[in-house]
TrEMBL record:
<protein>
    <submittedName>
        <fullName>RNP-1 like RNA-binding protein</fullName>
    </submittedName>
</protein>
<feature type="compositionally biased region" description="Basic and acidic residues">
    <location>
        <begin position="144"/>
        <end position="160"/>
    </location>
</feature>
<dbReference type="InterPro" id="IPR050441">
    <property type="entry name" value="RBM"/>
</dbReference>
<feature type="region of interest" description="Disordered">
    <location>
        <begin position="68"/>
        <end position="169"/>
    </location>
</feature>
<dbReference type="InterPro" id="IPR012677">
    <property type="entry name" value="Nucleotide-bd_a/b_plait_sf"/>
</dbReference>
<dbReference type="Pfam" id="PF00076">
    <property type="entry name" value="RRM_1"/>
</dbReference>
<dbReference type="InterPro" id="IPR000504">
    <property type="entry name" value="RRM_dom"/>
</dbReference>
<dbReference type="InterPro" id="IPR035979">
    <property type="entry name" value="RBD_domain_sf"/>
</dbReference>
<feature type="compositionally biased region" description="Polar residues">
    <location>
        <begin position="105"/>
        <end position="114"/>
    </location>
</feature>
<feature type="compositionally biased region" description="Basic and acidic residues">
    <location>
        <begin position="73"/>
        <end position="87"/>
    </location>
</feature>
<feature type="compositionally biased region" description="Low complexity">
    <location>
        <begin position="92"/>
        <end position="104"/>
    </location>
</feature>
<dbReference type="GO" id="GO:0003723">
    <property type="term" value="F:RNA binding"/>
</dbReference>
<feature type="domain" description="RRM">
    <location>
        <begin position="3"/>
        <end position="82"/>
    </location>
</feature>
Amino acid sequence: MSIRLYIGNLPKEEIDRQDLQAVFAEEGDAVTTKLIKDRKTGKCRGFGFLTVNNDEQADQIIEKYNGQMFKDTPIKLEKALPRTKGEEGEEQPQQQVPKPIIQGSSTPSPSGNKEGNRRDRSKKSRRGSGGGSARETATSVDNEAFRPDPRWAADLEKLKQMLSAQTTN
């Protein structure tokens, strides 16, 4: 099974895949690189991907090349997050946490004014909320906001244990 590694902190200038592949030439043909470029300008977007054969090789490469200089900048290597929905060239290096929804005008007024409720619905439809009530949307955002980043889950667990040990003493 192949493993994808995220290569970050690449210079945002005219570089090509061969330049990046040359950095990992020591590893042989077992690794392939993909450089993500801006569609309009053709310049590097600052990141790319490296595909390796297995987890063991991925860990070795991360250990060996993380922080290595590439065109005067230290590159950052880590295991790539699972792909999100989107097109081939629109991969994102990090997951974004959704902004919380502030409930306000979309909730019915306590006086039960039907005219006010109609205004709220018309505003909601203009915003293009995509259906669902504000309360349902807020619940789904809350659930997503509390999921830790899988790359830091082990460190987060250690910190929780250290904190609980301090509070019990």
